[in-house]
TrEMBL record:
Belongs to the universal stress protein A family. It comes from Sphaerisporangium rufum. This is UspA domain-containing protein. It comes from the Bacteria. Transmembrane segments: none annotated. Residues 8-89 form the UspA domain.
Amino acid sequence: MDYSDADFDEEERQQTQQAIVEVLGADPQVYVVTEVIQSPPAPALIDASATADLLVVESHGRGAFALMLLGSVSLHCVQHAICPVVAVRPRRPPALSPAMGLGQG
């Protein structure tokens, strides 16, 4: 496949805007800044935290063993950001809920 004419930055902008609308509605009551940056995520987020009031990151909840092997952007942000950080977990379908004895939390 030829991706030479693909606009990945625009696709990311659209997905981010869609996520914001899903969470905060079409007319959010808070000021949200989004930016698409071609950079490793952890250093870019730490840099952004210098001028942010709050940094919100998603935690994939892969567990301690995966964190030890792979590292974690959200963990790095919690440990090194200049502003407060909120790490949120993604919603899971009820069938994968740890309360039902499935999944790994």
